[in-house]
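Why do we bother with holo predictions? Because pocket geometry can differ from the apo form. Keep that in mind while you read this record for magnesium ion.
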Amino acid sequence: MTKKICVLPGDGIGPEITAQAVRVLEALNLGFEMETALIGGAAVDAAGDPYPQATQKLAAEADAVLLGAVGGSKWDSLPREQRPERGLLGIRKHLNLFANLRPAVLYPELANASTLKPEIVAGLDILIVRELTGDIYFGQPRGIENRNDERFGFNTMHYSESEIRRIGRVAFEAAGKRNKKVCSVDKMNVLETMQLWRDVMNELAPEYPDVELSHMLVDNAAMQLVRAPLQFDVMVTGNMFGDILSDEASMLTGSIGMLPSASLDENNKGLYEPSHGSAPDIAGKNLANPLATILSAAMMLRYSFNLEEEAKRVENAVKNVLAQRLRTGDIFESGMTRVGTKQMGDAILAELGK
Ligand code: IPM
Ligand code: MG
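The structure, written out:
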């Protein structure tokens, strides 16, 4: 059966990096049907809406979505509903993409890219499982109002036990296929929502006897990530803490341009995007690193299409071009060969053709 992929290039470097990932998907000759639509600032400019109806329809009908990046200072002064980020939050909620998988892996070839000492990060392989459709990001009530003659801002953190359970299951199942450790990150010493989070994680644990569950408060987790990151296998946490910790974890590898991500619904329909942003400063200059987007396409093959072998082929192609010392500017070191976005794509295609 032909699989449909909705391609959403977005803003900044988005179009350049998704173009390379699309070439990779085409080169695999799996007969994917790909259709492109607008999201983010590009959609605001063209249609006045960061997640227009036409995009919603295409995304809903597709088997998977490949996204570049959204955002840029150009749109920062628009009302909140029209900001590019709203497009991203909108598609996550619309497609019920509650499970965000953000791997932070240190490639041995890039060991020097980290700001941490090599002995602290060598062998790093963490999977952050971030809940993506709940928490304070979506909680009501929210707003800025006038109260007692001053402005008053408020947001609401909440989680139902079913929301916690379903993201917990994703984490336990992922850990079962990895190093069998889940660290659940919360703030139960202060927040009731997080007490429930911890209780539900504890209730789930007996169903996964081969996985070891531990708990950590989020402030300590932030510290442990830079003190001794090798202690972690899978980390599971809520939407807001996951936003922060996943940026921190990505920087352990020193190369955010290398990190893919997947956001999945209950049926493994997914949205795949690089973990980095739209980098408007280098947009259109053939400078961006397309590898995170290409690795996101590999995650798509694995999670949405169950094509493990093809996913590995793409991941190995990435390892091989790194071994050939090809580097885009973000991961460049002296002695390496500097290449542009398109040349990096060419090198991956050449590897796949071997
Ligand atoms: C992310 C981003 C988004 C988030 C923004 C752009 C809305 O930071 O995907 O981590 O906060 O979730
Ligand atoms: Mg973020």
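The chain has a mean pLDDT of 96.
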